[in-house]
Design brief:
- About 25% of the residues lie in helices and about 20% in strands.
- With about 300 residues, the protein is an alpha/beta fold.
- The chain has one domain (about 55-299): Alpha/Beta hydrolase fold, catalytic domain (Rossmann fold, 3-Layer(aba) Sandwich), CATH 3.40.50.1820.
- Strands 1-2-4-3-5-6-7-8 form an eight-stranded mixed sheet, with helices on both faces.
- Helix 3 (about 185-200) links the parallel strand 5 and strand 6 (about 205-210).
Length: about 300
């Protein structure tokens, strides 16, 4: 069962959405032609949600309650990016990237160090001011502050609940949803995109995966093939380190037309180059530049 989409958090600090200013009606002109009531109405101004992230909870089909956060875009009906985390962390690992994609001046709240460069937005590439994405993150079951055990089948149930819930968020473009994930989340992104498109045709427009490894018991290559076989094929990009045997085996052997791999040699990637460890500065190609390129292509 899905929960209701979130509307607010931090009630003491929450600002009210901007109210629409009513227009003054002009005086009637006796000689003016009668209005055509069948003509489409002009688009009404819609209040944009405040930039503050909105914490929320939703339930899976097996009645597990999960935590999520919605970062509203700066314009109505903007694309939605769903970010899925890796096993060593939770949705908080995406927080600075979520602020960055939201592009509403909310970043820089975390101090990253050499071990967590994805939490240091000082090196993130600039985004044009007119670009702003809705962003949704969530934490897999039993994964607060890092996953306590591997629950592959249950995590897929979490993915299903998360993408269905995110689809119902207000003020998003329901025909322009993009999924991005790292490690277990990278498989979840592909699985979730295919799943959502089975329910709502062409709702998900593409997948960017950092280090997939068939972690949710579903073959990543089969998901790529399924997304490529849709009437409007969905692109899938895979980033992986050559030193990461599981991801290299998965990403290096897919030949579908909708698929693009990016590999990093072992001597230039931080740590073991798995999952979020691919998101480090001074890489060629820059992983966040690739993210922006992918989003520009599909949104």
């Amino acid at each position: 069962m899905r929960g209701s989409p979130p509307t607010e958090i931090n009630e003491e600090n929450q600002q009210s959405p901007e109210e629409k200013v009513p227009e003054i009606a002009p005086e009637a002109d006796e000689n003016a032609p009668e209005a055509d009531e069948s003509a489409p109405l002009a688009e009404e101004a819609v209040a944009i949600l405040p930039s503050d992230p909105q914490k929320t909870k939703f339930s899976t089909s097996d009645s597990v309650e999960l935590n999520g956060v919605y970062y509203p875009a700066g314009s109505v009906s903007a694309p939605l990016v769903i970010l899925m985390h890796w096993a060593p962390g939770d949705q908080d690992d995406w927080v600075e990237i979520a602020y960055w994609l939201q592009n509403r001046g909310m970043g820089g709240h975390n101090t990253g160090d050499e071990s967590t460069p994805w939490l240091d937005s000082s090196w993130f590439p600039a985004i044009e001011p007119e670009i702003s994405y809705n962003v949704f993150t969530f934490t897999f079951r039993n994964c607060e502050n890092g996953c306590k055990s591997f629950e592959r089948e249950k995590w897929y149930i979490d993915v299903q609940a998360a993408v269905e819930y995110a689809y119902e968020l207000g003020d998003i473009d329901k025909d322009n949803i993009i999924m991005i994930g790292a490690s277990i989340g990278s498989d979840g992104a592909a699985d979730g995109c295919a799943y959502l498109n089975q329910i709502y045709t062409d709702a998900c427009d593409g997948v960017l995966s950092f280090s997939p490894g068939n972690y949710l018991t579903i073959d990543f290559g089969e998901m790529v093939k399924e997304l490529g076989a849709m009437s409007d094929p969905k692109p899938v990009w895979c980033l992986y380190a050559e030193s990461d045997p599981e991801s290299a085996a998965v990403c290096g052997n897919i030949t579908e037309d909708n698929y693009t791999p990016y590999s990093y040699p072992p001597d230039v990637i931080f740590s073991n180059g798995h999952g979020m460890n691919l998101i480090v500065p001074n890489q060629d190609p820059d992983p966040l530049e690739l993210m922006l390129k992918f989003l520009a292509m599909v949104s």
